[in-house]
Design brief:
125 residues; alpha+beta; Double Stranded RNA Binding Domain; 2 helices; elongated
Length: 125
């Protein structure tokens, strides 16, 4: 799993870096079952330099999975607090990955059930 962290219009401090890496490792546990390579591009930014209040912090995350069963997931969030934006993006990406994983498992189970019913029909004749 490769993590690329980028900051735009702001300084990337060690505390922000540690916070993002801690949140992304939870996502890494979910993606650990993927056989191919996983790239995570995470960007934190300050949208404007002259505003002092409002939704001025932005976090973007792009997850790319290569290999069999790969895919792309993207999420972004604008918040008043940078840490809240990071948490929001992490939650959205986590939900999207879990939903896709559940769909693939349901499709696999549905196909296996159908194949089993076809085989049972062949043996009865």
């Amino acid at each position: 799993m490769n993590i690329n962290l980028k900051a735009t219009n702001m300084e990337l401090s060690d505390s922000i870096r540690d916070y993002v890496e801690k949140r992304i490792t939870h996502l890494g546990k979910l993606l650990a079952q993927h056989e191919g390579e996983v790239n995570i591009d995470f960007e934190v930014s300050k949208t404007t330099n002259h505003h002092e209040s409002g939704k001025i912090y932005r976090a973007d995350c792009n997850v790319t999975m290569f290999g069999p069963g790969g895919g792309m997931f993207y999420s972004s969030s604008d918040q008043e607090d940078l840490y809240a934006a990071i948490d929001d993006v992490k939650d959205k990406i986590f939900k999207e990955v879990k939903r896709t994983k559940s769909r693939k498992q349901a499709l696999w189970k549905k196909g296996a059930t159908r194949l089993k019913s076809i085989l049972k029909g062949l043996t009865k004749r």
